[in-house]
């Protein structure tokens, strides 16, 4: 093979590679963390207050994930009057699961992970005890 054919072959290989990469990039799904991120930015001061309230607690919230029982046990330092738990999947928002926490006097909450797909998850819990809002976030791999 002479140099002319080799240069043309290398050029065509490179052009094919660039074409395949451009096609893949155009068809890759890119999920935003949230569709309403402007509103979330405005509400961030409320999140800061939740974190301050959580850090001011005398006992820290405890998080235990059991892969055998496929459940998470949360031990909160105060009773829950209302709140929600969000199982957040960073790579696919369609898999996110939101659970409303009902009013209860117990501080231990058991959440099932049986319906969650395998992979990396973040559990974000917001709860109130009739006076203040609190927030805790933990990561786990199912």
From TrEMBL:
One Pfam family hit = FixH
Q: Which domain of life is it from?
A: Bacteria
Question: Which InterPro entries does this UniProt record tie to the protein?
Answer: FixH
**Protein's UniProt name:** FixH protein
């Amino acid at each position: 093979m002479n140099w002319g054919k080799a240069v043309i072959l290398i050029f065509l290989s490179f052009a094919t590679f660039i074409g395949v990469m451009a096609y893949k990039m155009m068809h890759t799904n890119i999920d935003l963390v949230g569709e309403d991120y402007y509103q979330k930015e405005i509400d961030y001061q409320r999140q800061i207050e939740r974190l301050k309230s959580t850090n001011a607690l005398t006992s820290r919230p405890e998080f235990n994930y059991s892969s055998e029982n496929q459940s998470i046990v949360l031990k909160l330092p105060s009773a829950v009057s209302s709140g929600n738990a969000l199982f957040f999947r960073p790579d696919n928002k369609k898999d996110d699961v939101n659970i409303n926490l009902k009013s209860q006097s117990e501080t231990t909450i058991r959440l099932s992970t049986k319906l969650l797909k395998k992979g990396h998850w973040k559990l974000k819990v917001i709860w109130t005890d009739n006076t203040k809002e609190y927030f805790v976030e933990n990561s786990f791999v199912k």
